[in-house]
Amino acid sequence: MTEEELGRFLERIRADSIHSANTIIEEARRKVAQRIEESIKQGREDAFKQREDMLRDARTKSMALRNRVLSEARLKANAIRLNAVNRALESILHDVLEEFIEWSKNDRIGYMELLKNLIIEGIETIREDVELILKEEDLKLNLDLTSLSREVADKIGVNVKVTFSKEKLDAAGGVVIRSVDGRIVVHNTFEAIIERFKRRLHSRILKMLLEK
Questions:
Q1: Tell me, what DSSP letter sits at residue 169?
Q2: 189 beta partners
Q3: Per-residue DSSP letters for 104-124?
Q4: Which of 11, 84, 162, 166 could be bridged to 145 by S-S, CB 3.0 to 4.6 A?
């Protein structure tokens, strides 16, 4: 091989080496650029996902806070309304009790009829011999206990003995019916009747408030 041929051979090798090196460098650059692009894209996606997660979390927390605030507001509003209703109810029922008392004083015949009905109602619950606890002045109404016993027997089919207790009733009016052995007691005083009515009415009011 002549010196000239050797030179051309070496030049070709050098050129091939440079081409190969350039190819390798370009490929490396391309891969690096691709990696960078992928990293940027992934970073954007991660940032977007993180942002969306943060926004979603913020929306969730905001909604939870809103719901809690609304729930607390509703509870407070209901409590205020219930308190106002209770005050009004107490006032009304106090007036009802006063009217009961006034009526019992002015209409003794009507009041005696009410007492009979309250006594029969209590005996229907107890269904055995009973004693009646009445106010001192109501004992003067001369309730016919024998007739009352017969009326009860006709109504519920049970013969019971009805007597007056030596104990006096401390109430605005009405009667307490108690089994002779004291096991069963039915409170049919004015106060007890109004209290039972109040509980039923209070439950209905509470239900109405909770449904709103």
A1: P
A2: 174
A3: HHH-HHHHHHHHHHHHHHHHH
A4: 162
Look at the domain 108-211 and name its fold. Answer: hypothetical protein PF0899 fold (3.30.2320)
Q: Where are the domains of the chain?
A: 1-106, 108-211
Sheet holding 130-134, edge to edge: 162-168, 130-134, 174-179, 185-189
Kindly give, in sequence order, each residue whose CB lies less than 8 Å from that of residue 168, ignoring residues fewer than 6 positions away: 133, 134, 135, 136
Give the C-alpha separation, 126 to 175, whole Å. 14
Give the per-residue pLDDT at 118. 94
Which residue is it, tokens 């106060």? 191
Q: Are 173 and 187 spatial neighbours (Cβ–Cβ below 8 Å)? A: no
CA distance 144 to 16: 136
